[in-house]
Specification:
It is built from 22 helices and nine strands. With 437 residues, it is α/β, with parallel strands linked by helices. The longest helix is centred in the first third of the chain and has 14 residues. The termini are far apart. Keywords: Repeat, TPR repeat.
Amino acid sequence: MTTSTPADPIAKRLQTVQHLITSGKLSEAAERLNGVAKSAPRDPRVYLLGMRLGEAAGNPQRAEEAARRAVELEPTWPVSVTEYAALLARLGRFDEALDHARRAVALDPRNPQVLARMVDVAHDASRIDLALSWLNDLAAVVPGNDAIQLLLATDLRRVGRHEDAVRCYSGILERQPGNNAALLGRAQALHAMKDDEAALKDCAVLLEREPDNQEYQFLRALAAGETPPSQPEAVVKGLFDSIAYQFDDHLVRGLKYKLPRQVADIIKASHPDLKLNVLDLGCGTGLLGACLGRIDGYLIGVDLSEPMTAQAAGHQVYDRFHHVNVLDALKETPASLYHVIAALDVFIYVGDLTAAIPDAYRILLPGGQFIFSCETAAQDEADLVLRPSGRYAHKRSHVEALCRAAGFTELSVEEQVLRMEGDQPLAGFLVVAKKPA
């Protein structure tokens, strides 16, 4: 393999191409890169830049062809295999991405750059077991790096190894007492271990530093045995920003999520001509819009996560997106605008529905439908329950009472399995509440 040296003329020309890509001058970059390819047709670095150019131009097929060619030219060069693995992950082809990630690590098992990139691939693919393995290798190669230790502790907590996570977080805090991320992680792990006395102490320190931080306030309430009315925006946004481009595959194929198709069929049955306005609350990656198709009216999506709505925009059926929380969207929308409001798998993060349901009633047109799902809380539980999963469950009788109090007179509630959770069916119910005509 030809490596870069100060006298390497190809490297200098490739740097110019890279600068042009970064500057958005894609036509000039393509012209320059073609020139380099003619003089160095077997240099894999040329094709890795071709991959970046393809991605920048919105041409994933060309990007993949270029990355694959780089690997074919130098199959034992860890850089080309690493870049190909990362690209496949960005394309959502996680099984292939992980195969190449394993190859990259095997080729250079003590290279911190390779290990760090492949940890990212494992995270993207939701393979925390692999991420942990490679993080442990990375920590051995780069000892004393607290950024690596923080990732390691967080993954330990995510797989339920809370005692190990606490030890790891505590080690970071011994060296960096002011590290709020480590202190928050330790408090979360302590709460999961039901050591709420210790969790509250960490929360007190966090809130002393940042009294208005909603995430810290939320965790303090949990550790104190309270049920906060909703999850903080930062928590929800952070969760979905990180999984946006793998979300559809995980939810539909992995968790057997069928609500969008079911609700689209309900909407089409009520509006066979598709002449209607729809508000999709917590639209995510636009699964409802994809199932509904283009309508003769407005389809408006609401979601905190911009990476999620970027995925939804790809369906080319939404007219507009608003990046606000669901409660604010309902509160600030003028009356009598929509024929249908949908909130699928959304209220598990919103919690208290005492304002949401009346606001939905207000902004529906006469005869309009409010269609939403909830996870089920048992009749002997509270009206609103925060599960250890961090999601809210609602008591069916309480939700029905809120709907009738808001003015909905026609109410259909169907109990069903919402999706799989830990290979077990998750019980919930789907509500179709109709505003009087």
